[in-house]
Design a protein that fits this description.
Elements (H helix, E strand, L loop, with lengths): L1 E3 L6 H18 L16 H20 L8 E5 L2 E5 L2 H24 L4 H25 L4 E5 L2 E6 L2 E6 L3 E8 L5 E8 L4 E5 L9 H11 L6
Antiparallel strand pairs: 1-2, 2-3, 3-4, 4-5, 5-6, 7-8, 8-9
Helix pairs in contact: 1-2, 2-3, 2-4, 3-4
């Protein structure tokens, strides 16, 4: 079962904002092409290029603003909750991202462009998504944190483990300089300490839910 954990904007607002961005990008995209704006009527095929560039901008926005297509949902399992990087979302984002270079390559070979401005527009559309979302998602593709009535289980790249509740003496929530949860420290009954680096696992959107679950289900263990 999956529950929506963060309110999203009404569809009308999101669609309206995307249309506004599309129209604005379409209006500004003429600067990529050699044809002056006052000569567009004689070169109507440029409009297709402008629309394609605007579509690339919208794709970039949809990847960056994930909540439009991928509302953040919490997956409940028997006895608890699992927090993880949504793998299906990442696959769709990669496919969407591949459309951006295809569009710019087509525009480059199909139209006469101003190279510097063309490169600038391509960089704006291509670099932020891959740096902010896709690389982080790929690096944390299999990471998860599972909290249940019987155990704490996690995977963070090469680090992973499962710890029965009866083996845990205390759980400490470690916060960063912004007073945001960043790590969980488990003190086991054998006196060993396990640190779960939440800040390395692309789980930021779940921090409030993690904190709430810990405070509710593990309140006797919290230090």
């Amino acid at each position: 079962m999956k529950n929506l954990i963060r309110p999203v904007y009404p569809k009308e607002f999101s669609i309206g904002l995307l249309l506004l961005i599309f129209v604005t990008a379409c209006f500004l995209a003429h600067q990529i092409f050699v044809v002056p704006i006052h000569d567009l009527k004689e070169n109507k095929d440029i409009y297709v290029g402008m629309v394609l560039v605007s579509i690339a901008v919208i794709i970039m926005i949809l990847i960056m603003w994930e909540e439009i297509l991928f509302p953040i949902r919490l997956k409940e399992i028997e006895g608890g909750i699992i927090f993880r990087n949504r793998q299906r979302k990442l696959r769709i984002q990669v496919i969407m991202y591949c459309c951006i270079p295809v569009i710019f390559i087509y525009v480059y070979f199909q139209y006469e462009v101003k190279l510097v401005r063309f490169i600038a527009w391509a960089a704006v559309c291509m670099l932020p998504p891959v740096m902010d979302k896709i690389i982080s998602g790929v690096n944390n593709y299999e990471d998860f944190l599972k909290l249940t009535n019987t155990s704490v289980e996690y995977k963070n790249n090469e680090k992973e483990g499962r710890f029965p509740i009866e083996d845990i003496m205390t759980i400490t929530i470690v916060k960063d300089d912004r007073n945001v949860i960043s790590k969980l420290q488990l003190l086991l009954k054998n006196t060993s300490i396990v640190t779960i680096d939440l800040d390395e696992m692309e789980l930021e959107v779940f921090y409030d839910s993690i904190n709430m679950f810990l405070s509710t289900k593990y309140k006797d263990l919290l230090k």
